[in-house]
Structures are given as structure tokens and as C-alpha cells.
Amino acid sequence: MASRITIYEIARAAGVGIGTVSRVLNNHPSVTPETRQKVRDVMRRMRYQPHTYAQRLARHHSETICAVIPFFTNYFFAEILRGVQEGIGRLGYDLVLFGVNDVSQAESSIARALQRGRVDGMLFFSMRLPEKVVPRLREARLPIVLVDSYHPDFDSVSVANANGAYDATEHLLSLGHCRIGMITASQLSISAGERLDGYKRALEKNGIRYSKELVKAGANTKEHGFNREAGCEAMSDFVRMGSEMPSAFFVSSDIQAIGALAALSEHSLRVPDDVSIVGFDDIELAEHLRLTTMRQPMYEMGETAVERLRARMEDPDMDVLHRTFSPQLIVRDTCGPFIVKGR
Amino acid sequence: MASRITIYEIARAAGVGIGTVSRVLNNHPSVTPETRQKVRDVMRRMRYQPHTYAQRLARHHSETICAVIPFFTNYFFAEILRGVQEGIGRLGYDLVLFGVNDVSQAESSIARALQRGRVDGMLFFSMRLPEKVVPRLREARLPIVLVDSYHPDFDSVSVANANGAYDATEHLLSLGHCRIGMITASQLSISAGERLDGYKRALEKNGIRYSKELVKAGANTKEHGFNREAGCEAMSDFVRMGSEMPSAFFVSSDIQAIGALAALSEHSLRVPDDVSIVGFDDIELAEHLRLTTMRQPMYEMGETAVERLRARMEDPDMDVLHRTFSPQLIVRDTCGPFIVKGR
DNA sequence: ATGAAAGCGCTAACAA
DNA sequence: TTGTTAGCGCTTTCAT
Predict the structure, then answer these.
(1) Which is deepest, A33, B6, B264, B326, by most CB within 10 Å?
(2) What's the mean per-residue pLDDT of chain A?
(3) Global pTM?
(4) Cβ of B62 < 7 Å from strand D?
């Protein structure tokens, strides 16, 4: 394996002690420019590379941050991850990825990460933190930020899901729709829950009674139900309601909305003429499909999460901060006014 | 930070030596069941966690593999990464991600990774390995596998791009099209180059002269031109050819095909009535858009790459192996027979 | 400013 | 089987 050269050989070759070598490695001020240069030259000549793990062991920190992330195949996560990656790159840290499929895997990831000095900070994505790990996490005093999730004890960056859902529903309401359905996702997801709440709140505010029959999720629970299939299934269910079917829908994610659109077209229902749809996320394809949706600043959320983590690593005693981005309504072509149809 | 408990405290508490503790930690056979149990109990009770970096330093290997990956926001990479993540999880290894935007960043990633013992293996995605780093990589004798790329000196897993492109073009030819355009991407990408070759080969085989005018790439070079914008731009260029415009197109990726579709619909050209399109990749949305395309088994490629890496870590002297998957033509609704149109 | 020496927490060779 | 000891390659006092 790559070079067996240690600071000892460098020290010998440069005619100095290992302490000095270490000092130039760490840019310690008290080294004369000449010595520094001499040591640097030797290092270059011998192609010296410090041994990261030895450094980490001696320094008691790792300069790595760990991201625990479910389903990272989907566009929403990929985009946030891109922001994270960018931020971490700037810090010069390593990013280690723990992909998890369920809560128990998350717990084992946490256990691994909690090893002393293993990681300097953690990012949790879209996960309801299992309450049983919270005490351990707190006492570990490990900097943590939650992304697209929430817990009172930890920093978080997320989007105002309820408000976004509220605005989305309001938009539909303002178009004259009064029978508005919602396609939701698993309530295991905090975001899904909040979006449902926002929808309910908007109805209520407008004097419309919330009806359970108008809220459906697909059978496919992959990715907490945030998938195309689920959207398609849910919409198919709605179509089966026949004349009872709502004229407009708020869908809790774009990917589900895409599925819903497919179901609609399969049943020869036109958008926005027959049915109006508003999604959530504003993934790249939403624009392509001209989908009206609530935009989340995903990349920026990723960057912000890293920045927050950096701040907390610097000062572990800061107050807990919950950074909330406001989703923005992007009006495109999937919503139209409510029109009473003849049959 | 998390527990300050070391094998010393465990040893003391259990009334054994640290050697024994280490042995139970590493499942060394020569420990009596009773001692083992006793030590295990103490560990559990004291919530002991080994210090990874100390282990790595002493063991001379890291049980981590590093993935160097460009643009990992896109679906193609995300999907491969999912396979990678799955495979690595099974091995119990760590996955550290180096996102790179260009070749120089790739080189610095390589330098970092080459530190002794830092990583046990590397995965390079979709990158033409800079020839200048090849000698260093070889002499480091670090297990490496290239994914969606090729170099004679290193293991690789990829798809038969040229054959795929050939088949795609053949498909169009078999439908009666003879003026077939291609939307390509940056020739910095090996895959893009191979796909272009396959297209040329198919034309040639069918006695059709290759014409430079019929091959275009968009101006947007983000992600090597594998992006929606670029596809849209390229197709717009084609549309400007008026009656000279090809009746069918092979597009080097689905994401570009999606852009091309958008451009077409903007110009009121219908698919497949006016224009036929075949893409490459078979990303999730291809199905939704009913796009005819060449499928790459992305997830499987990711898994295979890890498996190959594991094999090479086990036996560094194996022969170099290039694993090639065959892309598969998925016929959907974007291709139709060539029809001579009246004007 | 610099060298020597004592850790960091573990593994592994060596005795016993 | 088990304890002791010498590394692993670095950082960081503590003298000088």
C-alpha cells in the first residue's frame, strides 16, 4: 500500500526531530521559515502523506461528518445531498454515508457513529429520531442537525411543510375548488404529517369540513409512500369515486403527483380541464411536466445544514436553532378554475 | 464526546488483561467461553465502543471504501450508488463519498485516498482516469474498480454502450427511418463516445453515410452534457433544419431525451407521429413518459462493482476483469414507422 | 525554535 | 488460554 514513509523518515532525512515535522504539518507558527521549507522539500521529495487515522487518533477528532439517509436514490435527497457535499467539501471534511432502510438500521448507524471520535458531527435526513436513542445522543454531546425533520432537542433545517400545504390548498381554493382531495404519504414521515395538517387547516379556515374520504395514500409504502406508484394508486382510488371525485388535489410530493398524473391520463381525465393538481418539492421534472407545485430550496437546505453543523461543532453550547425555509408556490399548468361540468 | 471507556477499563473491571479484551473484540477463538461471556457482559454494562481509528491504525486497514463520483445528483448515479451502498452495507464497510466537479478535483481526491491505510478500495464513477495518475494508482496497488468507465489496467463494470447505441439505431432503421439524427454529449465522457460509435456503426452497416450535421450536442455542458437543457437545445437546433430535419433520433441519455421531447412539443411536433425518439438509461421517468430506451441495470452495476472490489481486495493479483452488461431495448411509445409526409 | 518523550486506543507477537 | 509488551503514526506537552 501507498508509501510507508512516516514522519520519522522525514525527520531523519531533514535532520530534525519528529516534533518539528509534525509542527510544519500542522502549520504551527514556531518553526523558522528555513526549517519549514527544508522539511517541506523533503516531504515533497519523499512523497510523504500523513496517515489520517493516526492523526485522528492523536487529535481526538476525525474531520468527518456522517450523513444518515434513507432512500437516497430519490431526487429530493440527491439534491440536498449535493448541497451537503458542497458544504462539506469547503470545510475539507470527509462525508461518510450511512444508508438506512428502517429505524433499526438507523439505530445501529447511530451506535457506530457514536464511537468516540469517529465522526465530528451527524446529519439525519427525513427521520423521526427514535425517542429511545435521544438520551444517548444528547449525552454524547455530538453535534447533530436534522434535515427535513424535527426534534425539539436538536438543530434542524426544514421547510415549513404545514404552511406550504396550506398555501397549496389555498391556491386550489382560490381557483374556486371546494371539494379538494389530498394524496398523502406515510405518517411515519414528519413532513407528510405536517403537510396533511396544513391541508386540514386551509380547509378549516375556509369553512370546509375535513373529510377522511378525501385523503388517500397509495398501497406502495416504499420511501414512506413518496413514490410514483403510490401516487398512481391513490389517484386511481379517487377516480373510482366517480362523480364523488374531488375536482382538485394537493399531493404531498411531486413524485406522487407524477404518478397521479399518469393515473389521470389513463382514465382519460384531463389536467387541468377536468382535474387540478398541485404538488410539493419542485423537483427537476416538475418544470418539464409543467406541474404547479410548492418549491423547497433543496440544495440550499443541504448547504445550510452543513453550515449549522459547523457552527455547532465550534460552539456546542449554542441555543438549539430550527431553521425553517418557506416553500414557494410555483404556478404552472396543472391547475385551472373550478367549472361545473354538465354530464 | 461519547464514552471514554477503553479496553483498559474493561480489562480492569473484568479482571483480565487487555489482550483478552482485544481477543473477544476480534472473536479470536482462544478465549474460554466463560471469560468471553464475562468480558462481553462488562462491555455491555459499561457501554463500551471500540475506537475505530485506533483499530484502523493498528490493523493497517480501514474497512472503508471511497467512491469518487461526479454530479451525484442525477438519477443514474443515485441509482448506481444505491446498489453500491447496499453492497457495502453487506460487507460492513464504510462508504465515503468524494464528490468531484472536474478532473483536478478528482486528482486531489485520489491523493487523499492514497494515504496509507486510508481506504481499502476505490470506486471511480464515469470518469476518464487522468493518465497521469495511472502510474501512481498502479504502484499504490490499491484495489480500484471503474464504474461506467474503462481503462485497460483496472477492473471495470459498465454497459456495452456501443452495442446499445447500435441496437437503438437499428431499431429506428428497422422502422424504416433512414435519416437518423443523434443527440450526443461531451466526448469527455467515455460512454458518450462509445454511444456515438455505436450509432455510426449501425448506419454504416446499413449502408447509410454518416453525416456530421446529423449529430448535435447542446450548449449546456453541465454533467458532461447529460442534462435536460442540453437535450432541449440540441433538438431545437435540429428543428431549425426544417425539411432537412431527421425523422428519428437516438439520444444518448433519457434525461436529454426528455429535454428533446420538450423542445419537440414546443415546436408542435408530435412523437411518434412526426418524430421518433429512443433514449438511453431507462431512468424511472422513462416509463412514465413512455419513452423507448436502452435499459442499463444501474442498481445491479453498483452491486457488482462492490462485489468485484471485494474480490480484488481479497486477491490483489487476480487478472483484470471488465464486466460488461448488455443494455436492453425497451420499446414504449416514442417510436413509430417512417412515413413520407405530404406538406 | 526545537528535540525528546509520553500518550492516543488498539492489535498482535511473545512469553508464560 | 492468558497477560505483557511492543508497536501503529501521529500530536503535544515539557524541557532546553
Answers:
(1) B264
(2) 93
(3) 0.89
(4) no
